[in-house]
């Protein structure tokens, strides 16, 4: 239980409780003003059990503290989450019993805590490593950023911003320079097929259809289970729009969309086409109606 005076024999014992607390508050929390046991030993000569990890720390709401205003004042175009929110848990080691003790706990916030807002924080927008890898495969296929963003939102339900995707791309390219050099022989199409197989595995109710003729791909149809659910809800009008030059193979990408009651577009299927020849388009539309008429 997290309450004032509660004691814990290790940080590992306390950590899940802190995470649960943050989850209930619907706001990300972080560790601030911490002093690790090693540093504490250097300063004081008092050896605490390494399992405590910290001699002391504050586990505080993302909006805790005030923004630094040095020199000429607030720098332009610099955003900060800090807004003097008082919500925090202060933890200090009890030197008599060598345990971590909660010395202060404040649950109140000076801002709205809404479960609907939680996914909009950078922490909620972070992609898992497998999601990040999927994104990088699409980046490598030179998928346009806005389209990539829409794919990420549809497949992960995370509100990833264009800047998040740029940062991710920069970070992953740096880290993967060596690894990717061994992969350059794999063609874009091959990589995309692998990617789609993975997406299918992660979303077994999704619909994936790869139509081939004489060893050449005619079209690839993809509808995630979320897209199918959106279609079920708003099937009144469906439009199709194509984008070009999204990939090295120069295959146009068709996007089937419906509109929710607020007029926002919802992607209900993607289809990558060999060309826009009448026969191929005809088959693509048949695939779409076959996918949805079964529902
Ligand atoms: Zn707060």
TrEMBL record:
Return the Pfam families for the record: ZSWIM1-3_RNaseH-like, ZSWIM3_N
Q: Where is the ZSWIM1/3 RNaseH-like domain?
A: 203-291
Origin organism of this chain?
Frankliniella occidentalis
InterPro entries this protein is in? Answer: Zinc_finger_SWIM (IPR052579), ZSWIM1-3_RNaseH-like (IPR048324), ZSWIM3_N (IPR048325)
Q: Where is the ZSWIM3 N-terminal domain?
A: 3-111
Name of the protein: Uncharacterized protein LOC113214594
């Amino acid at each position: 239980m997290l309450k004032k005076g509660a004691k814990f024999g290790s940080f590992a014992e306390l950590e899940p409780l802190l995470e649960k607390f943050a989850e209930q508050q619907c706001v990300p929390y972080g560790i601030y003003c911490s002093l690790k046991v090693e540093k504490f030993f250097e300063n004081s000569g008092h050896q605490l059990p390494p399992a405590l990890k910290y001699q002391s720390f504050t586990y505080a709401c993302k909006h805790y503290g005030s923004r630094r205003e040095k020199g000429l004042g607030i720098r332009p175009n610099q955003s900060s989450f800090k807004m003097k929110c008082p919500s925090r848990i202060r933890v200090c080691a009890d030197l008599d019993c060598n345990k971590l003790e909660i010395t202060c706990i404040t649950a109140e916030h000076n801002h709205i805590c809404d479960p609907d807002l939680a996914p909009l924080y950078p922490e909620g927008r972070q992609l898992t490593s497998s999601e990040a890898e999927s994104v990088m495969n699409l980046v490598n296929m030179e998928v346009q950023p806005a389209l990539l963003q829409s794919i990420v939102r549809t497949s992960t339900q995370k509100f990833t911003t264009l800047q998040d995707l740029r940062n991710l791309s920069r970070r992953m390219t740096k880290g993967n320079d060596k690894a990717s050099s061994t992969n350059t022989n794999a063609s874009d199409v091959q990589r995309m097929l692998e990617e789609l197989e993975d997406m299918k595995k992660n979303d077994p109710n999704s619909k994936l259809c790869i139509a081939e003729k004489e060893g050449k791909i005619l079209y690839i149809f993809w509808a995630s289970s979320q897209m199918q659910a959106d279609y079920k809800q708003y099937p009144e009008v469906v439009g199709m729009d194509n984008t070009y030059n999204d990939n090295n193979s120069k295959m146009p990408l068709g996007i089937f969309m419906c509109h929710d009651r607020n007029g926002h577009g919802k992607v209900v299927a993607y289809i990558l086409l060999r060309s826009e020849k009448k026969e191929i388009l005809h088959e693509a539309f048949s695939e779409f109606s076959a996918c949805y008429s079964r529902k």
